[in-house]
Amino acid sequence: MLHPILYWFLIIIEIFFIISFLIYMISLIYSTMMGSPYVPVKRRKIKEILKQAGLQKNQKFIDIGCGDGRVIEEAVLSFNAQGFGIDINPVILLKAKLRAKIKKIKNIKYQKQNIFDADFSGYNMIYLFLMPKFIEKLSNKLEKSLKNGSTIVSHGFKIESLSKYLKKKVYDISFPTYIYHL
Questions:
Q1: Cβ neighbourhood burial of 118 (10 Å; 0-12, 13-18, 19+)
Q2: The model's pTM
Q3: To bridge 145 with a disulfide, which of 108, 120, 155, 180 should be the other Cys (CB 3.0-4.6 Å)?
Q4: How far apart are the two ends of the chain, measured CA to CA in Å?
Q5: What is the pLDDT of residues 31-59, one digit of tens each?
Q6: What percentage of the chain carries pLDDT values higher than 70?
Q7: DSSP character for 153?
Q8: 5 lies in which domain range?
Q9: How many domains would you assign to the chain?
Q10: Which residues are bridge partners to 151 per DSSP?
Q11: Does some domain include residue 139?
Q12: What SS3 state is found at 109?
């Protein structure tokens, strides 16, 4: 028989994990309902995508719907870019912030924000992995706010309205990546 204090301690720990799991699952449902389900890109693919896109040292890089921040981490750590990520999901964003802090990654910032309210001017490269209907809603804003020479990397889905800027298509088993150069 367990000591009563140990018994209650284990009950509290179990309740904590159940509540944490429920919060995490609700946040994933929330992201999906807001139009961008959390689908992490495999780490080994990220570096190749950014290399194909031509990311350079000190470029300003933004990940729209950054999720857990793995793409921004790769941009900052492997390419020495200045990384910025926005996401509407506060739980996944907290995970990204904590991981960056633990890894002591400099030149990386995260913000909880609706992507349609964000300012994209001043960025050299924009990465997004969003659902097609949200990409199209965002495409006019991207084209208007970005300067010539900016690159848009759309993982998974083509941006029809920017097809005249399509520079490269990187094929992958799971999702193709479309690279646009304005």
A1: middle
A2: 0.82
A3: 120
A4: 69
A5: 777 767 777 787 788 998 999 999 999 99
A6: 98
A7: E
A8: 1-33
A9: 2
A10: 125, 181
A11: yes
A12: strand
What is the SS3 assignment for 39-78? CCCCHHHHHHHHHHHCCCCCCEEEEECCCCCHHHHHHHHH
Q: Answer whether 142's CB lies under 8 Å from 162's CB.
A: yes
- Angle formed by the axes of helices 43-53 and 70-79, nearest 10°: 60
Residues 159/178, Cβ–Cβ less than 8 Å: yes
Give the span between the Cα atoms of 2 and 4, in whole angstroms.
Answer: 6
131 is a domain residue: yes
Examine residue 38 and state whether it is found in any structural domain, yes or no: no
Q: CA 86 to CA 27: how far, in whole Å?
A: 15
Residue 152, beta-bridge partner list: 126, 180
- Relative to beta strand 166-170, strand 125-128 is unpaired
* 6-27 per-position pLDDT tens digit: 888 888 999 988 988 888 788 7
**Are the beta carbons of 49 and 155 closer than 8 angstroms?**
yes
- Residue 111: inside a domain: yes
Helix (H) or strand (E) holding 164: none
Q: Pairing between strand 151-155 and 177-181?
A: antiparallel
User: Residues 86, 4: one domain?
Assistant: no
